[in-house]
Amino acid sequence: MKWLLEGTLAAIVFVAGVILFIKAPDLVRGWAFSIPGTTDVALEPSFFPRLGSLLLSVSALLVLATIPLRAHPLPAVGTSASAYVRVGIGLAGILIYLLAIVTFGFVVSSIVFITAATIAGGYRNLLVILPVAILIALALRVVFRFGLHVGLPEGLFI
Q1: Is the pLDDT of residue 42 over 70?
Q2: pLDDT attached to residue 76
Q3: Long-range pairs for 59-65: beta carbons < 8 A, 24 or more residues apart
Q4: When you count CB atoms within 10 A of the terminal residue's CB, does the N or C end of the chain come out lower?
Q5: How many helices and strands in the chain, by DSSP H and E?
Q6: Residue 121: which of 75, 156, 89 has the closest Cα?
Q7: pLDDT in tens, 6-25
Q8: CA distances from 20 to 12, 53, 72, 129 (A)
Q9: CA triplet 91, 92, 98: central angle to 5 degrees?
C-alpha cells in the first residue's frame, strides 16, 4: 500500500511536469532575450519554465524507477493528512494567483499574492508587508520588461 501511494504521487507529478512542458509556450509570452556574456543565441521565454518542468518530470521518473529498489518508502508515506491539506491549499493559492495574473495583471496580483502568502506564513506586520510586496512586484515588472524584454500579462490593471 505504501508503494502505491508513492507511485501515485510520482505519476501525478510526472504528468503535471509533462503538461507544464507542453503548455509553457502558451503560458509565457514575450520576446526572446539574450543573456549578456553568453552566446549570441537568444533564449526563448519558455526556456526556464520548460527546464523546470523537465527536471520535475525526470525527478518523478526517478522516484518511480527506484520504488522496487528501496527497502523503505519515501517520507511522503509518513506525512500527515493535515500537511497534505496545507500543501493543497498552497497549490490552490498558486493556481488562483496564476488565474488572477491573467485577469488583473501581474503587478496587482503579485502584491495580493505576496501579502497573502506572507500573512499565511505567520508574519502579520502590514506596515512592512505591503511596501515590500509593492516593491517586489514593481521591481520584477521592471526587470522582466526592460531588462529581459519579456512581456508579463496585463489584465484590468498593470
Answers
A1: no
A2: 67
A3: 59/13, 60/10, 60/11, 60/13, 60/14, 60/17, 61/10, 61/14, 63/6, 63/10, 63/13, 64/7, 64/10, 64/11, 64/14
A4: N
A5: 5, 0
A6: 89
A7: 788 889 999 999 998 888 87
A8: 12, 6, 30, 31
A9: 90
Alpha-carbon distance 56 to 14, whole Å?
7
The CA distance from 97 to 108, in Å, is 10
Enumerate the domain spans of the chain. Answer: 1-79, 81-158
Write out the three cell numbers for 135. 516593491
Spatial separation of the C-alpha atoms in residues 91 and 94, rounded to whole Å = 5
In the structure, what pLDDT confidence band is assigned to residue 116 with cuts at 50, 70 and 90? very high
C-alpha cell at 67: 520504488
The answer to whether the beta carbons of residues 43 and 35 sit under 8 Å apart is yes
Q: Cell 497573502 appears where?
A: 116
**Cβ-contact 20, 56 below 8 angstroms:** yes
